[in-house]
Amino acid sequence: ECDEEILHGKYGQHLSGHKEMKDRELYSYINKGGRPRQHLLSLTRRAQKHRLRELKRQVKAFAEKEEGGDIKAVCMTLFLLALRAKNEHKQADELEAIMQGRGSGLHPAVCLAIRINTFLSCSQYHKMYRTVKAVTGRQIFQPLHALRTAEKALLPGYHPFEWKPPLKNVSTNTEVGIIDGLSGLPLSIDDYPVDTIAKRFRYDAALVCALKDMEEEILEGMKAENLDDYLNGPFTVVVKESCDGMGDVSEKHGSGPAVPEKAVRFSFTIMNISIAHGNESKRIFEEVKPNSELCCKPLCL
Q1: Cβ-count burial of 38 within 10 angstroms (0-12 exposed, 13-18 middle, 19+ buried)?
Q2: pLDDT digits (tens, 9 = 90+) for 265-300
Q3: pTM
Q4: Which DSSP state fits 12?
Q5: Strands annotated E in the chain
Q6: Quick check: 201 and 300 in contact, CB under 8 A?
Q7: Are the beta carbons of 115 and 126 closer than 8 angstroms?
Q8: Domain residue ranges of the chain, discontinuous segments joined by +
Q9: Contact 112, 147 (CB under 8 A)
Q10: pLDDT in tens, 69-104
Q11: Half-sphere exposure (CA, 13 Å, Cβ side) for 30?
């Protein structure tokens, strides 16, 4: 009833401007027959642009006003919110990782854990890394050099520590040392390989590293015994020392010195940890598989 002449295709847009009008739905245009409206994702790119042109204009205006013109960030955030509203958190996490430049790959420490727990040598892991990258086109696993960097955090000497009271006759230097493996052996042994070398860790540095590595298990055990705030100790740590042959390691690649054909590892396993609480001792950790090489902490290679 406004007596305006408008194009048939623009009638719906014109009607939406008449907010003051009562019984507006009586005037609304009914599409009788014709093709059903296609789903947005099934349209061609040109048709998608055509259908979304008004929304795109609004997003552009918002981005210029609020986000310094970053339309991509606004659209990505809208997409993330839509995914999370439908509880599709896995897809949202992957998208968020890509947006932040992290990619959806595994953390180097996780890759290192996979390599060790599946008993893969460095060359076997590298082959798997290359295959997965070629087949999927994504770098899900991390390259070997990233694993080696992550491994440094697990080696003795990485974590600074201080014994209270200080230990007697123990060097404060926590560096890893290469020593002559023949030191202390009688010189009369002829068949012993002359070029034996060893990579030795200081015992206290190795123990501190092992305990630091087990921090989560220790805290979980304390929580289970309702000792959340009781961190003073004293702690009693029971250690089993062991020595095992590592077989032929000539094929294994590492960043250390060249190793002769056979290697031996001197190691220890943390069997259990108890904490003195009043007049009793509460056990907060116990190794479930004490004979597994996965819980062996190296002392000397």
Answers
A1: exposed
A2: 788 999 999 988 878 888 999 999 988 878 888 887
A3: 0.51
A4: H
A5: 177-180, 197-200, 235-248, 262-277, 280-286, 297-300
A6: yes
A7: no
A8: 46-100, 108-153, 178-300
A9: yes
A10: 889 889 989 999 999 999 888 888 878 877 776 666
A11: 4
